[in-house]
Design goal:
mainly alpha; globular
Length: 466
Amino acid sequence: MKILTVFRTFTKKDWHWMQKFVQSPVFNQHESVQKLFQFFRKQEVKTEKSYSSDFLYQKVFAKTSFNPAKIHHATHYLLQTTEDYLAWQEWQQDTTSQRLHLLKALRRRNLAGMFEEQLEKTEKSADAQPLRHADHFRFRHELALENYQHAIQGSGRSTAEQLQQFSNLHDVSFLAEKLKYACGIFSHQRLLPQKVDMGLLPMVLQYVESHPELWQFPAITVYYHGFLALSHPEEDRHFFALKERLAEAATCFPLPELRAVYLIGVNFCIHRINLRQEQFLREVFELYQSGLESGVFLEQGQITRLTYTNIAFAAMRLREFDWVLQYLNNYREHLPESQRQGAYAFNLARYYCEKGDYKQAMPLLLAMDFDDVLHNLAAKAMLAKMYWETGEMVALDSLLASFSAYLRRKRQLSEQQRQAYRNFVIFLKKSIALPPGNKTRKAKLREEIQLCALLAEKEWLVRIND
């Protein structure tokens, strides 16, 4: 029953406004729909099996002979009214759509004076707000289209100025959206079984490159450089061009879109860091800092555990210890409550571990049973490093045995993750088994470690075998 699927998403506010909908003769003229809605509102929405046709019929058409067609029609009309409510709710929250529909209505009724007054008012309002993202130019293009159609309708002709404005805004809107969606598609394409045909994108890139007047629009230039940074990660220039435009983008993009732009830069840096180009650690750290200042890493006031940890890790690798401790404490309350204590304890332990303060790091790790598998793996690796550094070999042997069992047991690990930590355990055991003073075998082991493609904590393993 489709209606149950929809009702399971309803909030108290939805139930309140939906009642007004079913009670309004504008949206519903069936008393049976009102009764059926009231029944569902008072009930806990259960499974479809809980609501047979004859059961619902008795609730709506009590004391009458069962007629399956009547309850079918009532359910159908209730679903139709609910869909109307959902559409109205979205429209009611979209002031730009309301203004466009008002202009269409005024134009179709030949209310020329009111149309022109409303158009001027709407254009001034659009110009006054700061956003200049792709959606803004699509809206301005739609306004220009209404103005063009109004001119044709009124006098049978339009001015060259109107046509030029309409054409220019159409170009900017199309180019900005094409480049924006190209970045999104390219970012997710690696997860798809086959490549997505990008259509006109090659011609769009060529057109932007050959028309310098378009470079005044951040909605075009940001995504132009963003796409080329994603598609040519071996080149630096487009990343740095994107980075230079982030401050401008922060003034004219909404936060969700600005967040997506920042992630383009972050992912570029992570790719280069994975290629052992350590200079991009500073670049990603600067992106994280400016992103935190702009608020892009908070969604509805919360930061994800993964982002919280990635930012802290980048800062620690750069030895920015004063900054990272302040960051961990300042953003702790922005973590989801169910993950807050675990994420904070894990990162604080890593902070102390990186500083060499194992006395404070160990209790944090030993006291926590992290609910995230990757956090557990990293925590076990940290403990192993600390046991090595402090010479607690009995504890280390015991930990490595339990670590191996954990890797075998956790099925949700990808094979790459499993192998990276399995190799960590193997090479640490080999390091323990090395005869003291045997430089030849140590050098050979160090070479094996460096050549291993999938290996967690590779830098540390290389260092202890220098």
